[in-house]
Amino acid sequence: MFMSHTGNDKITILIVYVDDVIVTCDDVAEIKDIKRLLAKEFQVQALGCRASSTPVELENKDRMFEGEPVEISSYQQLVGKLICFSHTRSDIAFAVSLMSQYMHKPWQGHLDAVHRILKYLKQAPIEGLLFQKTENNKSLH
Question: Signal sequence span per UniProt (predicted)?
Answer without folding.
Answer: none
